[in-house]
Amino acid sequence: MRIGIVVYSQTGNTRSVAAKLNEALSKAGQQVSLDEVKLAGERKGGDRTFTLGPLPELSRYDAVVLGAAVEAFSLSPVMATYLETIPTLEKKDIACLVTQGFPYGWMGGNRAVRQMRRLCEAKGGKVLGGEVVNWMGAGLEERIARAVEKLAELF
Ligand SMILES: Cc1cc2nc3c(=O)[nH]c(=O)nc-3n(C[C@H](O)[C@H](O)[C@H](O)COP(=O)(O)O)c2cc1C
């Protein structure tokens, strides 16, 4: 299966989980690549005004993993805008990866996954599942490993 992992990661957390997932999927024999949603200019903190750079091209993939952070108890507006902008996700299996600072999913992570799911379904994608990685607190490495395993199992 050709799988594209596409992340928006401002401070590197989501990117680091995506890199581990990339490795796990590759070891499992999948044809996987990692790409990023980039911006045309600089973006500070939770700026809601930004311009997307060239969009990662998804047409060559059978499946797509989308990764982004929680911002203000919601999906990062950069990922939301990217998903609103892309033409289609028809015939693609989708998995969602969300990272958040706070230790509980109800502090934005679960909502961000729901938002991602809705946006993907609106573009015709079939969402297989989603994982939230909570960054704060002991045991981060184990939480990352568990999320990577669960996401990899979806394909
Ligand atoms: C502007 C801003 C708003 C944030 N709001 C939340 C929030 O509401 N809940 C939460 O758990 N974490 C929040 N965070 C923390 C990020 O979700 C967390 O650090 C995430 O792992 C960052 O991912 P990244 O390094 O891939 O950008 C926020 C971070 C920023 C910069």
Detailed description of the structure:
The chain has 155 residues and is of the alpha/beta class. It has one domain: Flavodoxin domain (Rossmann fold, 3-Layer(aba) Sandwich), CATH 3.40.50. Helices cover 34% and strands 26% of the residues. The chain is built from four helices and six strands; from the N terminus they run E-H-E-E-E-H-E-H-E-H. Strands 1, 2, 3, 4, 5 and 6 form a six-stranded mixed beta sheet that branches. Helix 3 links the parallel strand 5 and strand 6. Helix 1 crosses helix 4 and helix 2 packs parallel to helix 3. The longest helix is centred in the first third of the chain and has 15 residues. It is globular and about 35 Å long. The protein starts with a strand and ends with a helix. The model has no long low-confidence stretch (mean pLDDT 97). Flavin mononucleotide binds next to helix 1, strand 3 and strand 5.
Report the span from N to C terminus.
8 Å
Q: How many structurally independent domains? A: 1
The number of strands is: 6
Approximate shape:
globular
Can you tell me the CATH class? Answer: Alpha Beta
Number of helices: 4
- CATH level-3 fold name: Rossmann fold
Which residues sit in consecutive blocks of at least 5 with pLDDT less than 50? none
Characterize the biggest β-sheet. 6 strands, mixed
How would you classify the helix and strand content by structural class?
Answer: alpha/beta
N-to-C series of helices and strands = EHEEEHEHEH
The CATH superfamily turns out to be Flavodoxin domain
**Bound molecule types:** flavin mononucleotide
What is the gyration radius calculated from CA atoms?
14 Å
